[in-house]
Task: inverse folding
């Protein structure tokens, strides 16, 4: 039952206003602040009953009723207006409290929470926010001057002043913490979404949508960065091409051709992915980047893969299609740039095609 009541109360706090497109988080924050203020207004009369003056208890009850009205108003008013109502309630309390009980009770510090609220909760111009700041400063300074030349309406004992100072300080810090935590979580959430979105865009920009492998741009960027960071790193580049791929497209259709590309990608990822970075270079061509491996090692690995592929058949709607690949291999010579290495491996791939396909040329 208690959990059910808590869920209903939380749902009440999260309930949207009657106006559309209002920031829900700000409404939620305002309601939390008004609840804290309402509880605070009810505590103040109890404090006076204990430390005096015992006759002055109605001010807190009146402001507690005003806090309830302001809480209800958040469901009927726009957020901008609700913020002003909440700020007006706090400002009125500060003025009344200082006039009645003096400057030393510290209620004027509540203005700092009001500044946080208006700067982060209201989507208004900087001029508006600066004007609001000037008004708060003018009120605070005026109250200070007032207290310099006037005594408070009620003379408080030192004990009462200290107790009120402690309570007001706690309330101010609690309200500041609530407001700052809400706004900081908003910023962190927005930044996290932006980071994830940028990572997603970056991944999409560097990924082939059909196979999920890197595309040409991402592979070149990766190799370039690798060589910049490790200029003496040994590596070998392989280039593979599906034999008679055009014939597959012409005879069985482009859907079959796409399925063959995905099927071969799965084979490559399983057999080579642990040792190499894989890339769909374009069409039916693939690039393999083998770090810390020489040409002989790569040739052996690609030949093993080639033979496994040749012994398998691709199932296309009940038809078994033989698929083979031809490879070229080029080892890093520590003097050629990336374009030259790619040109050399492409020439070796072409040589393999000329020699009958389904082979590795190094």
Result:
């Amino acid at each position: 039952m208690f959990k059910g009541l808590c869920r209903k109360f939380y749902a009440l706090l999260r309930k949207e206003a009657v106006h559309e497109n209002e920031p829900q988080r700000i409404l939620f924050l305002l309601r939390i602040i008004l609840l804290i203020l309402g509880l605070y207004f009810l505590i103040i009369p109890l404090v006076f009953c204990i430390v005096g003056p015992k006759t002055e208890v109605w001010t807190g009850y009146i402001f507690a009723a005003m806090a309830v009205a302001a809480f209800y108003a958040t469901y009927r008013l726009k957020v901008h207006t609700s913020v002003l109502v909440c700020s007006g309630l706090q400002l009125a309390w500060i003025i009344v409290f200082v006039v009645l009980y003096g400057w030393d009770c510290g209620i004027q510090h509540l203005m700092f929470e009001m500044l946080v609220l208006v700067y982060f909760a209201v989507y208004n111009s900087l001029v508006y926010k600066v004007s609001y700041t000037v008004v708060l400063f003018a009120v605070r300074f005026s109250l200070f001057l007032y207290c310099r030349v006037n005594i408070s309406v009620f003379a408080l004992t030192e004990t009462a002043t200290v107790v009120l100072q402690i309570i007001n300080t706690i309330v101010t810090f609690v309200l500041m913490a609530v407001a700052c935590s809400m706004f900081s979580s908003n910023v962190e959430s927005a930044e996290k979404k932006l980071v994830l979105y940028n990572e997603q865009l970056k991944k999409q920009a560097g990924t082939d949508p059909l196979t999920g492998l890197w595309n040409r741009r991402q592979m070149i960027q990766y190799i370039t960065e690798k060589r910049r960071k490790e200029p003496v790193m040994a590596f070998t580049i392989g280039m593979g091409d599906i034999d008679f791929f055009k014939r597959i497209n012409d005879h069985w259709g482009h859907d079959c051709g796409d399925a063959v590309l995905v099927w071969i990608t799965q084979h490559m990822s399983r057999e080579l992915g642990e040792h190499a970075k894989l890339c769909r270079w374009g069409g039916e061509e693939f690039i393999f980047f083998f770090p810390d491996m020489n040409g002989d090692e790569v040739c052996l690995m690609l030949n093993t893969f080639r033979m496994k592929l040749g012994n398998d058949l691709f199932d296309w709607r009940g038809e078994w299609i033989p698929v083979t690949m031809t490879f070229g291999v080029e080892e890093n010579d520590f003097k050629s740039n990336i374009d030259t290495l790619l040109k050399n491996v492409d020439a070796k791939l072409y040589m393999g095609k000329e020699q009958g396909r389904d082979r590795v040329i190094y």
User: Anything to note?
Assistant: The beta strands are 235-242, 277-282, 285-291, 313-316, 319-322, 325-331, 360-361. The first strand starts at residue 235 and ends at 242. The two ends are 76 Å apart (CA to CA). The chain has two domains: 2-184, 216-361.
